[in-house]
Design a protein that fits this description.
This protein has about 180 residues and is an all-alpha fold. The protein has a domain at about 55-170. The protein is about 80% helix and about 0% strand. It is built from 8 helices and no strands. Helix 2 crosses helix 6 (about 80-105) and helix 5 (about 60-75) packs antiparallel against helix 6 (about 80-105). It is globular. It starts with a helix and ends in a 9-residue tail after the last helix. About 40% of the residues are buried.
């Protein structure tokens, strides 16, 4: 089976899995709370100010931060620990507005089963990347540099998967409206 078919099947399996639907329902709660304030909602979705959703621009910050931390680990061979710690902290901080903006974008697609479910898996992958980044930062604080290094590599992998899933949300096959 060609790789493109395998990838398409994986994405179908992810969106069809019952856990994706449960994650989507759980995400409805913070999405509703976040978007209850019209000013916040308008800013995050680009309906005020930029006229463009913020999430596509913000996602590069945590993904790039994790990639930079990995590069510092590999190139520095342990000599650039302080720099990697700072970049990992930046990654964690950058993930917060990116997640809020992504949640706002996702909440506007509630009539699409595929977008809801694939977006939920995308959010779970991003949350995994952020959690691993936080754990890496905590390991650094405790001087457990080997663990911190492995955790930041895992964070970068999770963010890479997040980017792939986000790309499919934007460029993938269209979905017809369908209630959850």
């Amino acid at each position: 089976m060609p790789l493109t078919h395998q990838v398409r099947q994986l994405l179908t399996d992810l969106t069809d899995h019952p856990v994706a639907g449960r994650i989507a329902k759980v995400l409805d709660i913070p999405a509703d709370r976040l978007l209850a304030d019209e000013t916040v909602s308008a800013a995050l979705t680009g309906q005020s100010g930029t006229g463009h959703p913020l999430h596509p621009g913000l996602v590069h910050l945590p993904i790039g931060g994790a990639a930079a931390a990995v590069a510092l680990e590999v190139a520095g061979l342990g000599r650039l620990r302080a720099a990697s710690t700072v970049v990992t902290g930046f990654t964690v901080l950058a993930a917060l507005p990116s997640a809020a903006a992504g949640l706002a974008d996702w909440s506007q697609a509630r009539d699409s089963r595929k977008v809801r479910r694939l977006g939920a898996v995308h959010a779970a992958a991003a949350a995994t990347g952020t959690t691993l980044s936080i754990l890496s930062l905590l390991a650094r604080i405790r001087s457990s540099h080997g663990s911190a290094r492995l955790l930041v590599f895992g964070a970068a992998a999770a963010y890479t998967a997040t980017g792939f899933l986000g790309g499919d949300l934007v460029y993938g096959e269209p979905d017809s409206p369908d209630e959850e």
